[in-house]
Structures are given as structure tokens and as C-alpha cells.
């Protein structure tokens, strides 16, 4: 196929060029009816591309023309058997993968650090989760990889597991050993489903972790908007058949139709078409730029007193098979600053916008579209912060955090059963022994201690209570606090 083509973009332009008397949705009639307050700032031409299903532009839910060709080009680029455009983000792809792998009452192995969309997939499917715990990279207090040993042991204890759902690379760029994990899954007649939201770019540079499809994953989902130039909310899903894997492509298509809008945005899909074309033609240059910019920043930040910046040295630690070095995990603990404080200072003082912060770190994502000026501003901001906070004594920040997680709680209800059960709000102090109706995850490292449908054990309660008393960040609770908690009504 000719990867220089953009069939969907071309189809939309062909429609526009006919200057139709337009009586279809959307109501703004191409570029004619948009608010002048908006068009006066951004122009009007882009809105002409916001169309719907026409004889030119195909139908996402039954593609036969431009969309089908665009998806075939995508599949060829990534080496997939089938690829699909997603207009509801990677969330809907994760839901569809789980629903396509397991039915109600069947078991699926879920990495305990999975994105919350995995929980949505469990609610929709009615499947019973078997959880595997990721390791923790104690020096940085973030999630490590999923060990192949824990996957193998979980399959041996649960030979009826239909699939494993896991995240790789993680938000922080940490990759697990997908190749060996895929072998284990297929040996046990299970599917490997990978949330590769943060890894759509890793296929195009040998310095980055191996892509999930190449490593043997049966299905994966990528957020193309995160680092590859598509518009926000546009993602893709890939399917690849491997020996030992049993997939029903018609079921996958049906599930995608279930979780996707029946009014898909052609702006999002055209951006996917163009992002794919750019990767096909220019990925080598794009990824080389990102890797080199990130490495320059890493090298410079490491020279700054009180600062650390994670790199490939963590590979092989905490079950980490590799790292995406375009992700800058930055710590100023040596200056006594939390990640939250560092993020605030970078933004408020220097207008440097970073992706996220946790108790210890700040994450900055570098892409091909960043400039050397961006990198220099980040580095110089860190230098200034160090100079202002350096009192001749740098705190020893090399201590390793040992998070001794409590055992997994008793699973009384499946996530679906818990979701549709009547709940009540009680005081956190009275939560021990009750069945949780929500997730509670100390952050970092963001691994839930309790999931919906699980009984809150004494050990789990004490572990979470210790975080609460110390004022550490916790995802969960009611209204962002852990004074109250939702539990299944008795």
C-alpha cells in the first residue's frame, strides 16, 4: 500500500470541493454556521472538515471506502491483521478488548495497576478478575513491571483464565517483558491484551521498548494523540493473530460498535489518517529528534545539585524490561521538594508545563514537536530552582522505599455486581470488614489496595489509614477525601 496516501482526508476534501447544498448533520453546515467569536480567533476552514457519513466519507461502523482503506494503511504500518479507529479514546478500546476476551462469569487476569477503563470493561463484561501485582521501583516510588513469574503462577492457579490485561509502557515509560509474557499467555491458551496508550511511537526507534504487537500481543490499544500528532481523544486498536490465541473478529467489531459513538468525529479520524501518514514517512526523523532532545535534558538535569532524572539504568530492576527514554521522570527530593511542589514552581515561576506530579517526581513528556528552546527552558528552570533552594547541604535522596503491600483482599462480588448493588456512604473509621463500592489507591505508586467488590481487611484498612493520617495523596474516597467511603449496603 502507498503510505503517502491519506484516503479519509482526501475523501473529506472531495466532499468540500463539491460545494454541496448540505442538509445533513452537523447543523453548522460545514464552515458556515460556527460562532464568529470562535472563527474570528481561529479561522473557519477547519470546521468544513467536521462532516458526517456521506457517499464520499464512509461509515466508521460499517467501513467500505475511505475509512476502510485508512484503517488498512494503519494495520500495514504497525504489522497488525486488523486495525480500527477509535473516537472515544483508548478507554473504549480497553473496554472492547476485555469484552471480546471474556464473558460474564469468566476469569481474566488484570494487572493491579491497570487504568480505570479496565474496571469499566469488567463492569460491562461481567467477568471475574484475577489480579496480578506489579513490582514497585522503590528508588523512585513508582510502579515497576509485571513479572513473568507472577503471570505464570496466576495462570497455574487459575488455568481457566481467558486473558491477561496489562499496561506497557506505563505513564512513566516503564515497559514489562511483553515477549515472554505473551509466550506464557499462549501456552495457557490465554490472550495478551495490552493497554499501550503511551506506546504508539515505540515501534519506530530501536532505542525505545519493543512494541506490544511485535512482542506477541493479540490486541493492543494506543492513544495516538498522546505523542504522535493526532487530536485529543483519537486512538486506535490493533488485532494480530498468534498461535495459541482464539479471537472472534466479528465479536470485536460488534463490541467496538457498542462502546463507540454513532456520531464519530471526522476531525478525529482525519487526524488519525494524517498522523499515520506522518509516521510512515517520517517516523525515523521524528523519533530521533525526541530521543535526542530528551537525552540532552536528562544529561543536563543530572548535573544540577539536588535533582535526579530517571534513565535506562533502571532496566532490569523491579521487573523492568526497558524504558521509554522520551519520558523525563524528574525528582528534586535532594532539595527537599515534593513532586507537587516542583510542578507548581515550574509552572508558576517559569511557565514550564509538565504532564503530572506525584509525591516524589514530576513527569515531562518529550515529543518530536518539542524544540531545543523548550528543553533549555526546562533545564534552566531546574537550575534556578536548585540555586534558590541549595543551602550547601543536599539531602540524601537515594533511599529505597519498601512498600509492603497488604495481601489482596477477599473478592466477594465481581466489579459488575458491585457496580449494580445498592451502596451507602459511611465513615472511613467504620469501613473495616465492609465490602467496598469504590477503589482506593495510595498515590504514588497508584496501585489500588481495594477494588469495588472486595472486603476491606484489617491489614488493608491499616495500610490506607497510615497514608491518610500522614496526609499523603490517596485516589478514592468521597469528595477527594477519605473521611467517608462508599460501601455495599447491608
What can you see in these coordinates?
There is one protein chain. This protein has 490 residues and is α+β, with helices and mostly antiparallel strands. Helix content is 36%, strand content 15%. It contains 15 helices and 19 strands. The strands form 6 sheets. The protein has a 7-stranded mixed β-sheet, sandwiched between helices. A 4-stranded antiparallel β-sheet has the order 11-13-15-14. A two-stranded antiparallel sheet has the order 4-5. The chain is globular, with a radius of gyration of 24 Å. The mean pLDDT is 94.
Mean pLDDT: 94
The radius of gyration is 24 Å
Protein structure class:
alpha+beta
End-to-end Cα distance: 60 Å
User: Treating each run of at least 4 consecutive H or I residues as one helix, how many helices?
Assistant: 15
Biggest β-sheet strands, sense, barrel: 7 strands, mixed
**What percentage of the residues does DSSP assign to strands (E)?**
5-15%
Adjacency order of strands in the biggest sheet:
1-10-9-8-6-2-3
| Helix percentage range | 25-40%
Uncertain runs = none
Please count the beta strands (DSSP E, at least 2 residues each): 19
Shape descriptor reads: globular
Topology:
Blueprint: H1 7-17, H2 36-42, H3 66-78, E1 82-86, H4 89-101, E2 107-111, H5 116-125, E3 128-132, E4 136-137, E5 142-143, H6 148-157, E6 161-167, E7 174-175, H7 178-187, E8 191-195, H8 212-215, E9 219-222, H9 224-227, E10 235-239, H10 249-259, H11 266-302, E11 308-309, E12 322-323, E13 327-331, H12 339-350, E14 356-357, E15 361-365, H13 372-389, H14 415-419, E16 423-427, E17 441-442, H15 458-469, E18 474-475, E19 484-488
Helix pairs in contact: 1-3, 1-11, 3-11, 4-5, 4-10, 6-7, 11-13, 12-13
Amino acid at each position: 500500500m502507498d503510505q503517502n496516501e491519506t484516503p479519509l482526508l482526501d475523501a473529506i476534501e472531495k466532499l468540500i470541493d463539491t460545494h454541496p447544498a448540505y442538509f445533513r448533520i452537523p447543523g453548522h453546515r460545514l464552515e458556515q454556521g460556527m460562532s464568529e467569536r470562535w472563527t474570528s480567533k481561529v479561522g473557519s476552514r477547519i470546521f468544513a472538515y467536521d462532516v458526517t457519513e456521506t457517499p464520499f466519507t464512509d461509515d466508521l461502523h460499517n467501513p467500505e471506502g475511505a475509512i476502510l482503506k485508512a484503517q488498512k494503511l494503519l494495520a500495514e504500518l504497525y504489522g497488525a491483521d486488523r486495525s480500527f479507529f477509535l473516537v472515544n479514546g483508548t478507554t473504549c478500546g480497553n473496554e472492547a478488548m476485555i469484552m471480546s476476551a471474556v464473558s460474564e462469569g469468566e476469569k481474566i487476569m488484570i494487572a493491579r495497576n491497570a487504568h480505570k477503563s479496565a474496571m469499566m470493561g469488567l463492569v460491562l463484561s461481567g467477568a471475574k478478575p484475577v489480579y496480578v501485582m506489579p513490582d514497585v521501583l522503590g528508588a523512585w516510588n513508582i510502579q515497576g513491571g509485571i513479572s513473568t513469574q507472577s503471570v505464570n503462577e496466576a495462570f497455574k492457579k487459575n488455568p481457566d483464565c481467558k486473558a491477561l490485561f496489562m499496561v506497557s509502557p506505563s505513564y512513566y515509560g516503564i515497559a514489562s517483558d511483553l515477549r515472554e509474557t505473551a509466550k506464557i499467555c499462549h501456552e495457557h491458551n490465554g490472550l495478551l491484551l495490552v493497554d499501550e496508550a503511551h506506546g504508539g511511537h515505540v515501534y519506530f526507534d530501536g532505542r525505545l521498548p519493543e512494541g506490544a504487537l511485535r512482542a506477541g500481543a493479540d490486541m493492543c490499544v494506543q492513544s495516538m494523540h498522546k505523542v504522535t500528532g493526532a487530536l485529543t481523544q483519537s486512538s486506535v486498536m490493533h488485532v494480530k493473530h498468534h498461535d495459541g490465541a482464539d479471537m472472534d473478529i466479528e465479536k470485536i467489531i460488534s463490541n467496538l460498535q457498542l462502546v463507540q459513538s454513532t456520531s464519530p468525529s471526522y476531525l478525529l479520524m482525519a487526524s488519525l489518517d494524517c498522523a499515520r501518514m506522518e509516521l510512515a514517512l517520517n517516523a525515523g526523523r521524528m523519533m530521533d529528534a525526541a530521543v535526542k532532545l530528551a537525552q540532552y535534558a536528562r544529561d543536563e538535569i543530572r548535573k544540577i545539585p539536588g535533582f535526579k532524572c530517571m534513565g535506562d539504568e533502571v532496566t532490569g530492576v523491579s521487573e523492568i524490561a526497558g524504558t521509554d527514554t522520551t519520558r523525563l521522570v524528574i525528582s528534586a527530593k535532594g532539595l527537599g521538594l515534593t513532586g507537587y511542589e516542583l510542578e507548581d514552581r515550574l509552572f508558576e515561576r517559569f511557565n514550564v508545563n509538565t504532564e503530572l506530579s506525584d509525591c516524589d517526581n514530576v513527569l515531562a513528556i518529550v515529543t518530536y514537536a518539542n524544540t531545543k528552546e523548550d528543553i533549555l527552558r526546562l533545564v534552566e528552570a531546574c537550575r534556578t530552582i536548585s540555586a534558590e533552594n541549595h543551602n550547601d547541604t543536599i539531602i540524601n535522596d537515594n533511599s529505597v522505599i519498601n512498600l509492603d503491600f497488604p495481601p489482596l483482599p477477599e473478592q466477594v462480588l465481581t466489579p459488575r455486581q458491585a457496580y449494580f448493588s445498592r451502596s451507602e456512604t459511611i465513615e472511613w473509621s467504620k469501613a473495616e470488614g465492609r465490602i467496598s463500592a469504590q477503589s482506593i489507591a495510595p498515590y504514588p505508586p497508584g496501585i489500588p489496595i481495594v477494588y469495588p467488590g472486595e472486603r476491606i481487611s484489617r491489614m488493608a484498612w491499616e495500610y490506607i489509614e497510615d497514608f491518610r493520617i500522614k496526609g499523603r495523596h490517596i485516589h478514592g474516597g468521597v469528595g477527594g477525601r477519605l473521611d467517608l467511603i462508599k460501601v455495599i449496603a447491608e
